[in-house]
Design brief:
- With 215 residues, the protein is an alpha/beta fold.
- Helices cover 34% and strands 19% of the residues.
- It contains eight helices and eight strands; from the N terminus they run E-H-E-H-E-H-E-H-E-E-H-E-H-E-H-H.
- The protein has an eight-stranded parallel sheet with strand order 1-8-7-6-5-4-3-2.
- Helix 5 runs parallel beside helix 6 (177-186) and helix 6 runs parallel beside helix 8.
- The N and C termini lie close together (12 Å).
- The model has no long low-confidence stretch (mean pLDDT 98).
- The structure holds D-xylitol-5-phosphate (DX5) and zinc ion.
- Zinc ion binds next to strand 2.
């Protein structure tokens, strides 16, 4: 599978967001990962649909919007409307029935639907709803902040998931040139990375290192 790299804007300088976006775009980003946090599901607050709408105007790259919020189904219309290409909700925040409805609604609107799970959430939790997902996002840190260390148990989880799931597997949290190798070998093919890419002197090299890590 082709490896795709998704720089996470949470580590960008928000006062110069348009420039930061152009820079990672030129450096070879495949999509932009946008972290939405509500101060309830996670202990941090970031941005909402209004910001996504303006980010949409800055780039043609697909927008991969990661909703770390309670009651995500209340806000998905707004995020889809703002220009999200991919929307991910957490299995910890939504019932199976609501997930099913949401999945068909987003698909009808041409938005790819992802289901994410926290490091402490067992794979068994998402097995019954895998059929509704266009991709799965495996968290390799506890969501809330960028710059945290990779939690190694994500590797086994990705490997087990890859054995039963043919779709895209994304991974998010603590990804750098070293941790990327393990997750790619385990079967992940979309890698979100914040601090490693935005903290790099040479972003092009950083993205290439992630892309080629498992080889
Ligand atoms: C964590 C966010 C991640 C985060 C990644 O809650 O979902 O997308 O920004 O940042 P790094 O790559 O620095 O761990
Ligand atoms: Zn994220």
């Amino acid at each position: 599978m082709k490896i795709k790299v998704a720089p996470s804007l949470l580590s960008a300088d928000f006062s110069r967001l348009a420039e930061e976006i152009k820079k990672v775009e030129k450096a070879g980003a495949d999509m932009l990962h946008i972290d939405v946090m509500d101060g309830h599901f996670v202990p941090n607050i970031t941005i909402g649909p209004a910001a996504v709408k303006y980010i949409r105007k800055c780039t043609k790259l697909p927008l991969d919007v990661h909703l770390m919020i309670k009651n995500p189904q209340k806000y998905t219309d707004a995020f889809a409307h703002a220009g999200s290409d991919m929307l991910t909700v957490h299995i910890e925040t939504i019932s199976g029935a609501k997930l099913k409805t949401l999945s068909s609604k987003l698909k009808a609107n041409g938005v790819k639907f992802g289901i994410s799970l926290n490091p402490s959430t067992p794979l068994a939790k998402i097995k019954p709803v895998l059929k509704y997902a266009d991709f799965v996002l495996v968290m390799s840190v506890n969501p809330g902040f960028s710059g945290q260390s990779f939690i190694p148990s994500a590797i086994g989880k990705i490997r087990q998931l890859r054995a039963i799931y043919k779709g895209d597997i994304a991974v998010d949290g603590g990804i750098n040139d070293l941790t990327a190798a393990g997750v790619v070998r385990a079967g992940a093919n979309i890698l979100a990375a914040g601090s490693y890419i935005f903290g790099a002197k040479d972003q092009k090299k950083a993205i290439e290192r992630i892309r080629n890590a498992g080889k």
